[in-house]
Amino acid sequence: MNQLIIDGVTKQFGALKVLQSCDLTVERGSVVTLLGPSGCGKTTLLRSIAGFVTPDAGRIRVKGQDISRLPPNRRDVGYVFQNYALFPHLTCRDNIAYGLVVRRVPKAEIARRVSQALDLIALAAFADRYPKQLSGGQQQRVAIARALVLEPQVLLLDEPFNALDAQLRLSMQVELRKLIDRVGITSIFVTHDQQEAMALSDRVAIMRGGRIEQIGSPLEIYDRPRSCFVADFIGRANLMPTQVRAGRTEGPQAIAAALPDGPATLVARPENIDLTPGSGPGWPGKVTFLTALGPVIEYEVDCGFSVPVRAALPRHAGVETFEPGALVTARIRDEAAAVVLPGEPNHA
């Protein structure tokens, strides 16, 4: 069952088209991440769902009800802000209870639901502390509990990890996903961090210029991008210009392509590129740079394209390490994992 349906949502500020006919369906209990570069419209779309922005066109439905013109307090939607927005003069317990108090929920019911929320986020022992007495991760959990205690149909999270350091950010990603799974709440998450999106999401919606360019599972987006933008934006990718002739790419390694004859882009992830010393079948080149990344060494190889070919090779016994200046041949290891897209790559 679809919990949230966004149908043709459009928003313009003056001459700037921030959202352009956005369509998205979110199943009950799933996590969907809006991912894209700054200014692509992801936060505006999130705020449109919350009611903080009114779309110029289109509809937003939650459990079949059109909420497009309802005020935020009548949308049954929870919102977790970037900076948590906790009240500094209220304790952890009172911050969580605030929305229930505003809604005039009976005191006994408030006490029960707040107690449950504190247990859920494992902060019952910190109930009487003020925000300044909590760590960044604890403050974030209080902000999430404040939204969840209202029992919304949809939970919206606007880059909630921005204020956390790298190590805490990683642990909180795991904690948040476990919390969402325990509660079973439908969630929309906004981030510009690709790893975050891949770790948290059931599906990822890639946004560009106010449009949703592709929607799919994290691995589907990574393995089968539908445009050069998506391929280049998600992870690291080699985008090599080629020509399609009679259903295959031209060049030293012909790859099957279900495209008409003409210019195309061959997409191969660095982990799908093998390097062999000297000349051989593939793209000849020279190693120009290498980065040791613990278990993997990533090489940059000048193969005559406008940008170097990247190859990520695992470090283990028997695998040769190539130094800058070494002459090598690059070859795609698994042709089935390569993607051929129409048009030429844009490396601008």
TrEMBL record:
The keyword ATP-binding applies. One of its GO terms (molecular function) is ATP hydrolysis activity. One of its GO terms (cellular component) is ATP-binding cassette (ABC) transporter complex. Keywords: ATP-binding, Nucleotide-binding, Transport. GO terms for biological process: quaternary ammonium group transport. Pfam families: ABC_tran, TOBE_2. SUPFAM superfamilies: MOP-like (SSF50331), P-loop containing nucleoside triphosphate hydrolases (SSF52540). Residues 4-234 form the ABC transporter domain. Belongs to the ABC transporter superfamily. This is ABC-type Fe3+/spermidine/putrescine transport system ATPase subunit.
